[in-house]
Amino acid sequence: MSLVTRLTFCSLPLFAFPVVAQAASDACAGLASNDPQVQLLKTLNVPAGEIPKANPGRAALTGQALSKAAMPAHCLVEGLINPRQGSDGQAYGIRFELRMPQDWNGRFLFQGGGGMDGVVNQALGAIPFRGASALPALNRGYAVVATDSGHAGKDSSDARFGLDQQARLDYAYAAIGQVTRQAKQLLAEHYGRGPEHSVFMGCSNGGRAALMAAQRFPTEFDGIIAGNPGLRLSRAAVAQAWDTRALEAAAPRTAAGEPILAQSLTRDDMSLVSRKVLERCDALDGARDGSIDAMSQCRFDPADLQCTADGQGQCLSAAKVQALRTVFDGAKDSQGRSLYANWPWDAGIASDGWRAWKLGTSQTGQPNARNATLTPNSLGYYFMTPPNPNLTLAEVDFDQAAAAVAETGAINDPTGTQLSSFIANGGKLIVIHGNSDPVFSANDLRHYWHRLARDNGGQQPLGQWARLFMVPGMAHCGDGPALDNFDPLQALQDWQDHNTPPQQLIATGNAFPGRSRPLCPYPLEARYSGQGDMQNAESFTCSLPDTQQHAVR
Q1: What is the rounded average pLDDT for all residues in the chain?
Q2: Which of 190, 197, 433, 476 is catalytic?
């Protein structure tokens, strides 16, 4: 639909709306691409009122909240870019879905995927944190695009595309550029103009892709929201193998000698650890409230829980204490050199969201923890070069792992700090991460943020275009004893419109009914002022932690 056509809406009488709807339908159906490498598979005018489809599998890997709000009237386009046959004989191509609302606000949002992608999810632009209740971007007037990143998988855990060189490149970053260019061309054709602001928003691998959009396509986007990003995803995959092996060492065995991973640290064990961490760290922010807001000051040694000779009281065996130490100290090679970051002690380590990745619930020798089930596939097919499709976690050689994932890491991991073009383009970056994320260490992101500040003039200049918000207790893209209901998209839009960085994000959540808290821009942390209701965000200030304890372990 052209801009002129849109502007005539307000002057039309009510009886003319069927005519307008027909015009919108015709304009949508008439869309075409002049690129011979692009096929438009569907162009459909969708009337207002359609309810989004539930996708629990996607939510498990990305945190995308299910919107219950009916979609507005919009033009739906499904397309395929660069269809080809891969080196492995499989069919490849970058599939995408673009939704363009009739009442467009002039903004464009690229919706990040999750896991190994491989599926095209509904392009809604939902806030990618499970507790979020804010409206999706499409309902706010954004045009939204989503993609499978260049390959069709049986689900978002399927990494078999890693056998094909181009498919690796497409997943790592190349599909972002291809889909963005095609989506903007369709926007210009449909509306008669391009977007005023272009945003990338995602969590997990979608958060990694969001950072990659800023680093690889710095002039295409002027807004980035990266949730729980897979910053060093190639090394995190190695760490997942490390954690599983460490926990299996403390697990009881079946009659056949198989470790029962979920029993290496039971729910009661982790509840005990979480309670002790809270006893040590909860009140450091001035409020004992079940949340560790003074995250940088929390120190804990699981040896404090090791059973004594008399075995009295609640305690952990020496093997369980060692497993915890081995995991939380981070993956290492046989020389003690770090392969991945260590992990912060936080209340969320007893949550179902943490357990789902590290331990699972299976009471048999067949684990269902995501680290155990997803890692052999992703490491063997995608992260390792050359690929090893038959990889088992028992075969992972931690002395060779860094070299084995280096080639994919070079194209896949968004660890760059040179973002001068993104900054010059007016780019604004919001990163949000759960302190209890079991997949990507919050400490790894903190280390990166210090490098980003160092290479861009320090914390104060960095804060003019980039803000990091750590969420106490939050696991991967939501859940945990955390306040995971907040609206980073509105914060970004306000920042773009008024050029004022967000001083805080106000968060609520089902874990603490009736409570609100400020999420503070790193390195600031929420601290109780000493007066007022501890359930109210207004009773907390964003303050620098004690400088003597500020360094991240």
Answers
A1: 93
A2: 476
